[in-house]
UniProtKB/TrEMBL annotation:
Keywords of this entry: ATP-binding, Carbohydrate metabolism, Cytoplasm, Kinase, Magnesium, Metal-binding, Nucleotide-binding, Potassium, Transferase
UniProt-annotated binding residues for ATP: 182, 218-223, 250-251
Enzyme class: transferase
Cofactor annotation: Mg(2+)
Protein name in the entry: Ribokinase
Its biological purpose: Catalyzes the phosphorylation of ribose at O-5 in a reaction requiring ATP and magnesium. The resulting D-ribose-5-phosphate can then be used either for sythesis of nucleotides, histidine, and tryptophan, or as a component of the pentose phosphate pathway.
Active site residues per record: 251
């Protein structure tokens, strides 16, 4: 079971605050922590912990954050031979987490701006040998499009996690086999404004018409919607025992979903498996500490049955 990941790495600088500050307001009493982040790296580590053989394409700077990233991937068993060392500093994300677990994130892309089509071309053999290619969108559009095209040309199943969301070029839509937006990202992909008035099922159908593949809209505590050629179905949520921090839950879901698909599970069962991973992740503070192992997920699945 092989998974190729094209996406981001960044250092996450997290502040847990009593409440998010308003414009011009200073809030004291916060707790600071730092750690590894970036959607591509998170997804790669999560997939490796679930037993996949994972290769990663991203870009980091020649700095302490970049060196820490390479040590993380070595420790977690993620293949990072193709990771680009850029001229710019490693991406940094500033994360504010409220007591409810909700988060707000600001990003300085840095090295990721240097991830281009040439880097993807050097990664083509890894894409071709994978069971599934996972692409996320904290990287330049050029790299997203090149990765999806490489997946399609090599016959590898492509999964786009469209976060952070932006409208996609028309040429990208037919290159996507599986699309996994959340409720906020779905209308952005379609270029809709806030008053679009469409429900989640209508959004799922509209996105499926664009790709011709499978669309999974994640809805947090409401579970997920799955749109296929047979229609739209609902997958119930796996309830978290507690919600501590939602940061990384989407990456955990995406990675577990990709692993389950690579194992040959039907889409609905794969979404159920991914929902358990997401529920585990929100119950633990920090992203990397919260990404589950296969044993942890099996224990959760067993306790719910």
């Amino acid at each position: 079971m092989k998974i190729a990941v094209v996406g981001s790495y960044g250092a996450g600088l997290t502040m847990r605050v009593p409440k998010a500050p308003a414009a011009g307001e200073t809030v004291s009493g916060g707790l600071f922590d730092s750690g590894a982040g970036g959607k591509g790296s998170n997804q790669a580590v999560a997939a490796a912990r679930l037993g996949a053989e994972v290769t990663l394409l991203t870009a980091v700077g020649d700095d302490e954050f970049g060196r820490s990233a390479r040590e993380l991937w070595r420790r977690e068993g993620v293949g990072a031979e193709h990771v680009v060392t850029a001229q710019a500093p490693t991406m940094v994300g500033f994360i504010l987490v409220e007591p409810s677990g909700e988060n707000r994130i600001a990003i300085a892309p840095g090295a990721l701006d240097e991830l281009d089509a040439a880097a993807v071309d050097a990664f083509r053999a890894e894409i071709a040998s994978a069971d599934i290619l996972v692409v996320s969108m904290e990287i330049p559009e050029e790299a997203v499009a090149a990765a999806l095209r490489a997946g399609r040309e090599s016959g590898t199943r492509t999964l786009l996690n469209p976060a952070p969301a932006r409208p996609l070029p028309d040429a990208c839509w037919p290159l996507i086999d599986v699309l996994t937006p959340n409720q906020t990202e779905a209308p952005v992909l379609l270029g809709l404004d806030e008053g679009h008035g469409l429900g989640d099922e209508e959004l799922a159908r509209a996105l499926r018409e664009r790709t011709g593949g499978t669309v999974v809209i994640t809805r947090g505590g409401e579970g997920a919607l799955v749109a296929r050629d047979t229609g739209v179905t609902t997958v119930p949520p796996h309830r978290a025992r507690t919600v501590v921090d939602t940061t990384g839950a989407g990456d955990s879901f995406t990675a577990a979903f990709a692993v389950a698909l690579a194992e040959g599970r039907p889409v609905g069962r794969a979404v159920e498996f991914a929902a358990v991973a997401g529920a585990h992740t929100v119950s633990i503070a920090g992203v990397i500490p919260a990404l589950p192992t296969r044993a942890q997920l099996n224990a959760l699945i067993g306790s719910a049955s």
